[in-house]
Amino acid sequence: MPGAFTVMKSHGARLTLVAFLAVIVLGTSHRPANALAFDPIQNLSNTSTGSQNPRFAVSGANVFVAWEEVVGSNAYGNPIYQVFFRRSTDTGVTWQPMVPLEDPSPFPPQVRLAASGDTVLVLWFQVVDTTIPLVYRRSTDAGVTFGPLQTIDPTNGGNVEVAFTGSNAYAAWNECCSPTELVAYSRSSDAGATFSAPIVVSEVVARRG
């Protein structure tokens, strides 16, 4: 029985996706000579700058990928980042053009991605004035278009993780900073249209170096 599997890799200045088809033979130890075949590597970012932190989600025949692109540097030589998104509607055979989801930012976005049905959620941290809030954008048409930027947590944060099933989405992340470090949590019961106010599920005294 054939099964599809997808592997995401980041190679320095480019982002590649390797897809392969594995043939699984049940009830026998024999493996046909052609049991493992690889498709050609596809460069998804196709840029001369740095591509990093790729995340992907699969829903039916749709494959969604989001990552962080280094698009320049500031006056001090520090990198400027931007979140990009691509989608495939044929299980990764072909890909639609890259779509930027945020304005360039001096903070690594730590992008995360989740999908359920035709709804796609892309979360990241973005510098706003003097804070680094947890923000997201939502698509309800399998990544064709995205709604406006929305905020889950307006305070400084990092290390977000997200899960999405049915119409329920869940996010957990670190709020900071000294003298305590917090683990915060928020949920959505309307497929990401809105998120609950963050609640603290863990709090520890920040360690000193």
Tell me about this structure.
This protein is mostly beta strands and 209 residues long. Helices cover 0% and strands 55% of the residues. It is built from no helices and 16 strands. The strands form four sheets. Strands 1, 2, 3 and 4 form a four-stranded antiparallel sheet that branches. The chain has a four-stranded antiparallel sheet with strand order 5-6-7-8, with no helix packed on it. It is globular, with a radius of gyration of 19 Å. The relative contact order is 0.11.
Concise overview:
The chain is mostly beta strands and 209 residues long. The chain contains no helices and 16 strands.
The averaged pLDDT comes out at 83
Give helix and strand order, one letter per element, not per position.
EEEEEEEEEEEEEEEE
User: What's the gyration radius in Å?
Assistant: 19 Å
Shape assignment: globular
Distance between the termini: 54 Å
Proportion of β residues?
A: over 45%
For the biggest sheet, the summary is:
4 strands, antiparallel
Unreliable stretches (pLDDT < 50, length at least 5) are 1-14, 16-32
Q: Specify the helix fraction band.
A: under 10%
Query: What's the tally of helices?
Result: 0
Structural class by secondary-structure content: mainly beta
**Overall strand count:** 16
